[in-house]
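pasting Sugar phosphate isomerase/epimerase for the record, 300 residues
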Amino acid sequence: MPSALDRIRVGSAPDSWGVWFPDDPRQVPWERFLDEVTEAGYDWIELGPYGYLPTDPARLTDEVTRRGLKVSAGTIFCGLHRGPAEWDATWEQVGRVAALTQAMGAKHLVVIPSFWRDDKTAEILEPPELTGEQWGHLTRGMERLGREVRDTYGLDIVVHPHADTHIDTEEHVERFLDATDSDLVNLCLDTGHYAYCGGDSVKLIETYGERIGYLHLKQVDPDILAGVREGGVPFGPAVQRGVMCEPPGGVPELGPVLTAAQELGVDLFAIVEQDMYPCEPDKPLPIAVRTRKFLRSCGA
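structre below
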């Protein structure tokens, strides 16, 4: 038997049910997601796109509590590298998401940088590399966000490196971490996105362990990824090709990642996210059941 990973709290998210948008006819209804995530054996969930789950705190509390679920985090997207002019729009979004996250008793706000390439059309929206000035806007903006989210809502922000954003590769992730204050900003390490962009999750945990505040568990199919890289395919179509695959069939190996995280000696959420938008409604539950069983075999 593997050793128990007693500092790791495993959950799942609407993403693993093919949910990317607040409202989309190709997504399963939220009631079905909550029923099935419970059936699959998970105790923790994320809110997913704001507006997918009920946004009234009393109603959502009732819905999750009667299924034995708890909420670990909410999520926002932002483009703070564009400078102070972005702040008001960012804070308006934060206000909605963070208030609901706080009301649900969660302690984390996952922050995803905005995409430089449209994830549907492949249109290049911005250069993939930031200027020095833009890096300054990004790092100072994230520190301000971390401070104000903590002061206003009592939440910690965890910044999520993501494919087709400016925080993606090992070089960019390390530059971001080196330029930000660990008291204000830490990382949501998504093992799939980091592998997609060429990074080594175990190495990052071992090198920047004090900055790892949250985990998303995900794997990449290396053969599909090779074709994606060769063809310059944007993230959305890459997902439709199946680039994010069911564990344990891809990379990185999740057992060593979870062991490295356990060795940090702190409590960490590890939320399963297998991007599958769009998918057939009957596809997610069997995968979720198998994935939960696999993670138990790793000790989680």
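The chain is about 40% helix and 15% strand.
The chain has a mean pLDDT of 97.
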